[in-house]
Amino acid sequence: MGVRVPDVPYGTLGTFDEPGSGIDFLAHRYRPASGGAAESFEQMLALLVQTVIGDDAQLVRANPGDWGIDVLYGDLDGTVRIWQAKYFVNGVGKNQKSQIEDSFASAMKAAQREGHRVAAWVLCVPSSLDAPTRKWWSQWRADQQAKSPGVEIDLWDETVLRRHLMAPAAEYVRQLYYGYRPAAPPAPAALADRARPVATPAATAVTTTWRVGDEIRLDRAGYLLLDEPMEWASADGSLVWRTATAVQLDLGDQPVRIRQVWARRPDTPADQRRSELRAQARLAGTALVELVDRDGATTVVTRQPPGHPWRELYGPADVPPDQLITSASLAAAADVCGELASLHAGGHNHRALGPDDIVVAPPPGRAGLRDLGFAAITASRDDRTSGSRAPEQARPPYEAGSRTDVYQLAGLIYHTLTCHPPGPACPPVRATMDTFPADLDEMLLRCLHVDPRCRPVRITSLRDALRQGRRHLFGSGAS
């Protein structure tokens, strides 16, 4: 028995922005996403699962594919339900079957290794299975459920996906990704307007759940959310922490970062975290756009540096980078070390370094931090990042320091160069890239040591090794 599909009332299906367009899954090829159509489809699926299952469903983006998870519902310390997105828009053939099998195997291995239990695994594909493939699916599903008792395996093909998308609760997902309206079609939009997400009516900045395409109104301006916000509650339930990328609508579409702490109840932990976010706003200096403190929430808006995220330029990808990408990524990481050194000199640390948290300006620009991460914020197991967490971050309470940033940045470099996230026993980079400098390889492994005391205390040690290693690897012409 699979995950239950709720009943959806059918009748008048409404109209679309363009006659005959329907819910066309090819639309993901034309939506902006750093990972292309596949990532756009994953983002849509995360929102759709929220409408079917609940707001606690979340997109897992830190290490794509490593744990066989794209969308997660539940706690990785307990029981989870997993949705695996495969953008097989042209159907499922031999190669696609292998990818499905590998993803399920990864999910089961990760659960055994990490100690969580998988209650359900749902494959999501925007196409239909032909008769031979459906027969294969039925047999494979039966075999895997026999091997993994207690795991429900289900399929959301294009028919099931459309059925969920037609549900009233999914209206905003239809609007955002497929231009669907259950009423008369609006006047044709200007081409420039179609290049950005369709804003839903202005959301309350405090008590509602933020979603892609929401317009958040604060004191100085309105802000259109461009990506799926990170949103989570503290372990004691006293507060909600949110971060999102947006554009400032009223002042020239300035890219910004929005961070908010909302106190669900007035108590010491929530009040402390709001006070710390105000302290972070003071650290932002001229990058601060506005600080709003009302209705039980503290909201900080800062300018985001221009450029492209590390993930878009360097990965991590499925294959090791070529010489040009390797050189550029080492140079960018050295730039980030410089910014982190300044942060550390002031007694602060970032603790949220991942491929989405570093921005690289157009050539000959430098790389820098997208925002201040958790600077001025007390270390907690609730800290979230788009990259690898340092081992100590999973053991509350932990002492925040520069060594946590050293691990996270080294982990991003290692993942980019080897295509594998760091772990307790990392093979050297030279196992993947035999020309990689031994001294830099040794430094990366030191930075990735499980024990923080065994890592360099100064981020400048990593910066110097990156610069020297880049010169050694690519000759005196690299600087």
Question: What does this protein structure show overall?
Answer:
Helix content is 34%, strand content 17%. By secondary structure, it is of the alpha+beta class. It folds into three domains: 15-181, Restriction Endonuclease; 199-303, 2-Layer Sandwich (Phosphorylase Kinase, domain 1), CATH 3.30.200; 308-474, Transferase(Phosphotransferase), domain 1 (Orthogonal Bundle). Helix 9 (323-345) runs antiparallel to helix 10 and helix 9 packs antiparallel against helix 12 (459-474). The termini are far apart. Residues 1-21 and 180-199 have low confidence and may be disordered.
Number of domains: 3
The CATH architecture of the largest domain is 3-Layer(aba) Sandwich
Straight-line N-to-C gap? 60 Å
For the record, what CATH class of the largest domain applies? Alpha Beta
Give the amount of beta strand, in percent.
15-25%
Number of extended strands: 17
Global mean pLDDT: 81
Low-confidence stretches: 1-21, 180-199
Q: Would you list the SSEs in sequence order as H and E?
A: EHEEEHEHEHHEHEEEEEHEEEHHEEHHH
Overall radius of gyration: 23 Å
CATH topology of the largest domain: Restriction Endonuclease
Percent in helix: 25-40%
Structural class: alpha+beta
What about the largest sheet? 7 strands, antiparallel
- Tertiary shape: globular
Number of helices: 12
